[in-house]
């Protein structure tokens, strides 16, 4: 059964809108309240950081749409290094670049921002994220689904609140 020209245009416009919303959006999401987690309960948050690699994004292909990559819920969370608690350090931000393969496994993790922070914070981030797994980025063309590698930056903020270790959503 063939679709009318109007139906084909509507399907194409929907696919383009979905693609732009998933891959092509260059604007930063609105600021939200940081979620705090304590080392004692294992709660931790991370923020997806802006990337300077905007030109390296996948380009739209006619008739294709993309499914966002998502980290698995049981990925290990970075922990505030216990040896640093007594030092009562100021907040420290660590930004890591992950390269994730088409199977959703972290192929490479590199610290790209650790301005003035103790190296133990960067080590804690790398120890956690190197084992992360994602539902991979997927390009859908008709009935064909193609998993794709991708790069993602995450920002972690380590700080102490009332003497307790906190790793929170970056600002």
TrEMBL record:
It is found in: Membrane. Residues 1-25 form the signal peptide. GO terms for biological process: transmembrane transport. InterPro entries: TonB/TolA_C (IPR006260), TonB_C (IPR037682). Residues 77-143 form the TonB C-terminal domain. This is TonB family protein. It comes from Thermomonas fusca. Keywords: Membrane, Signal, Transmembrane, Transmembrane helix. Pfam families: TonB_C (PF03544). It is a single-pass membrane protein. The keyword Acetylation does not apply. Its main location: membrane. One of its GO terms (cellular component) is membrane. The keyword Metal-binding does not apply. It comes from the Bacteria.
């Amino acid at each position: 059964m063939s679709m009318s020209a109007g139906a084909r245009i509507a399907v194409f416009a929907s696919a383009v809108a979905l693609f732009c919303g998933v891959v092509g959006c260059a604007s930063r999401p609105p600021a939200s309240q940081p979620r705090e987690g304590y080392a004692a309960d294992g709660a931790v948050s991370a923020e997806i950081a802006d990337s300077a690699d905007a030109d390296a994004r996948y380009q739209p292909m006619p008739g294709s749409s993309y499914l966002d990559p998502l980290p698995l819920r049981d990925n290990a969370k970075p922990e505030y290094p216990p040896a640093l608690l007594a030092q009562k350090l100021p907040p420290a931000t660590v930004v890591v670049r992950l390269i994730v393969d088409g199977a959703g496994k972290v192929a490479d993790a590199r610290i790209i921002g650790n301005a003035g922070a103790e190296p133990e914070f960067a080590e804690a981030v790398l120890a956690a994220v190197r084992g992360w797994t994602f539902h991979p980025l997927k390009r859908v063309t008709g009935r064909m689904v193609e998993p794709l590698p991708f790069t993602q930056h995450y920002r972690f903020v380590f700080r102490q609140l009332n003497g307790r270790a906190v790793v929170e959503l970056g600002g």
